[in-house]
């Protein structure tokens, strides 16, 4: 049975943005959407975060190519959340910012009859996971849609990795793996100093406080855990109580000087709430973590690492391997790939029968994704993807939003989405709990 949600087909969907402290809030509005009113109500405290958000929206409105046409009405003040609830003039609220109160906001917005599209993570600790469960229950009772922004499902090499994993003539079957050699591994490397929409990204100071942003093991790993579920068990319901076992997790800090902190926040000193994380004038940000777990009997490993700044000409990177009985499907994004994600098919046994089948089987991929080709290399094959499919991380926000709006307008969501969101956040918060118990420093 599909979960039902509010259908708003007779009038335009009214959009609001709540406390947009993260640049992802603006990226949702980098495009216009059919059926969505162009006036967006923003409710936020009067902070530099709000100013940055509004300047990004204005830059999209004023750009030369495909300018947007958003009209922004702003309410700012300490009572911003209560004012949003009191006004009751929004069908959909976008949440992307400080995560300390995010789960509480989600639950109250759902209780007030508003649909919610939330940036990850929707929850950053085990205590708030219980509140998230209540929010999903209320959403189902009240025919509302609560959904998170999983942009990585729209990256082309990940899409092709998933497609190939379900072609037994090429991949075989997914291995069960072990703790030492998981069946699926995903690793993500990020950087605090980076460019977004052509400019150096200015991050709010609270981004470096794990009590407000969340530790790395519950933040970026949300995407990785989601992809493990989405690729290995597409369309299948995952019950976190019976299908997930987290058995190893660890965490460690990225160390940052005041000079580095100032370069990305434009603040000349560490705020008082970060004093707890400072040793010898060095800020320790617990932005790194890894976890090993079993999902439906399959061993998986995900990890995230944050460095301060990428070497010149590079950026955030992603590594992924799915181990099959006939081949491994590997995404690499290193120097050899010019720091662009590239998918490889690496066969286990290169017998004549397998070699003869792969190219004919791959035609199914080529029929679906025109222009995708195979290039034979020493270890197997490299999947050549035309640039037209590489639209970039920022464009994926529009793709997620468009799919969400289709769910909203049709009045239903696939029956696996909600239980799998719960499974995902159970996995990340359980891993944090385990990692902190193993390494209690800076809890």
What features would you describe in this structure?
This protein has 2 domains: about 5-150, 3-Layer(aba) Sandwich (Rossmann fold), CATH 3.40.50; about 155-395, Dihydrodipicolinate Reductase, domain 2 (2-Layer Sandwich), CATH 3.30.360. The protein is globular. The two termini are about 40 Å apart. Mean pLDDT is about 95; it is low at about 1-10. The protein contains 13 helices and 20 strands. It has helices at about 25, 50-60, 80-85, 100-110, 125-140, 155-165, 170, 220-230, 240-245, 260-265, 350-370, 395-410, 415-440, and strands at about 5, 15-20, 35-45, 70-75, 90-95, 115-120, 145-150, 185-195, 195, 200, 245-255, 280, 280-295, 300-310, 315-325, 325-330, 340-345, 375, 380-385, 410-415. The strands form 4 sheets. Strands 8, 11, 12, 13, 14, 15, 16, 17, 18 and 19 form a 10-stranded mixed β-sheet that branches. It has about 450 residues and is an alpha/beta fold.
Counting helices, strands and paired strands, the structural category is alpha/beta
Assigned CATH class of the largest domain: Alpha Beta
Question: In the CATH hierarchy, what is the superfamily of the largest domain?
Answer: Dihydrodipicolinate Reductase, domain 2
**How many domains make up the coordinates?**
2
Instruction: Summarize the main sheet.
Output: 10 strands, mixed
Return residue spans where pLDDT drops below 50 for at least 5 consecutive residues.
Answer: 1-9
What would the average pLDDT be, to the nearest integer? 93
- Which range best describes the helical content: under 10%, 10-25%, 25-40%, 40-55%, 55-70% or over 70%? 25-40%
- Total count of strands: 20
**Cα distance spanning the termini:** 41 Å
